[in-house]
Amino acid sequence: MLHDVDNFFLHHAETRPELKNVDFKFNGTLYRYDETENKCIIRIPSSAEHYFRVGDDYFEYIEIPDKHNNLTKTYHKRKKETIKDDNGKDIFKHVPKYKAFCNVPDHINYQLVINNCFNTYHPFVYEPEEGDASRTIEFIKHIFGEDEIVLDENFSVKRYEIALDYLTILYKHPQQILPILCLVSRERQTGKTTFLKWLKLIFVENCAIVGNQDFENNFNTHWASKLIIGCDETKIERHVVMERIKGMSTASTIMKEGKGVDQISMDFFGKFILLSNNEDNFATIDREEIRFWVIKVPVIKTKDVDLIDDLFNEIPSFLNLLSQRKIITQKRERHWFDTRLLKTEALDKIVANSAPTMEKNIKYNMAALFEKTCYDMITITLDDVVKYIAKFNNDEKKNYVKQTLHTMGYKTNPPKRNLFTPVIEEVRAENRIEYKILDKKCVGRYYEFNRTDFITLEDDIENKDTLF
Length: 468
Prior knowledge:
Structural class: alpha/beta
Number of strands: 22
Strand content: 25-35%
Largest sheet: 5 strands, parallel
CATH topology of the largest domain: Rossmann fold
Radius of gyration: 32 Å
CATH superfamily of the largest domain: P-loop containing nucleotide triphosphate hydrolases
CATH architecture of the largest domain: 3-Layer(aba) Sandwich
Strand order of the largest sheet: 14-15-18-13-19
Helix content: 25-40%
């Protein structure tokens, strides 16, 4: 009797009298039999479940296929007249109505409606299950490495364990601020993109993958409410864009803005994950910056074409692992992790390449001077820094050099007599030019430069035969 709702009810009510005077669903629509009219009356049409209203605006749930034909449930704005044309005017009395939007992330105790506000954060689609997550742990170890980081005699941790803490916080405490995670490598086939795709599989609609251009304009409706904002092939050249990302990484609210739509202030908890093949200069990062965690990802030794499928299949068991494990690190900063845990050689390289040209020149020429001398410390006046280190023959750049040295952390010492500064001078001899180290005597306020700030022990060993 599934072809007609009235016949369906009358047929089953004969053997099940408890169905009388109660609501029942037939093909998604809620009915109740009316004995006076001898027919089933619609209480809530099935189409009403596809719509909701927030304030004055109507929205429709829809399922959008991706390139893999996977359906993702989301919602789009609809005009009232469009809904009326498709469903009739009676549908509006059945459409759920909410006062406003809210944005409250929760993967364990999710609520769609909070204080009569519609939650824009999408429901989490997985439940933790007992099982094997060894392939996932192996992948995380590959991405982040197993280097041991020792903070003091009482605490040490491996880098992949920090990553597990990062992922645990994402899952259990999504509102916690986290550092900007950057996975870099100039080589291909490292797993960087797979890592981001894997997070997209876990967090689905709460993860947005954007392009560089999405950070350069103010239109952010497609990612402002997301937990993870990932960017592949990152190359951020504009200083203002990098400052915007850094500011948002620790912001508690954001202005959600779309084309032709009024700005709306909303809670923000987005975590930025940047992937780049430009491991030396994908962005400008100052030496004082503490919000970046830069990881150089090695090439995968053995290619596995089923890797993403294996990671997908282990998601429930991996979530079970996260739900049960204890976070190893303690909260030390706004972004949780002690800054010393985030320090890597990859970060140092980007910071060095982010330095202004003047700073790079000073570092390069000071290193060259130390390489050609046996001094552990060099004392030098500002005038000589300008002439011999910064390589300027006039005083026009003196203030700029002084400001750069201050930025690098160097301050002048009180005036002193009998200062001897090693300088490299050209000596022309017949058809060739020779370079000699001369101790130049000078007087005045001076800077002190230590060899270890410019030359590492490895460099000393490598150059020991050519220093003198």
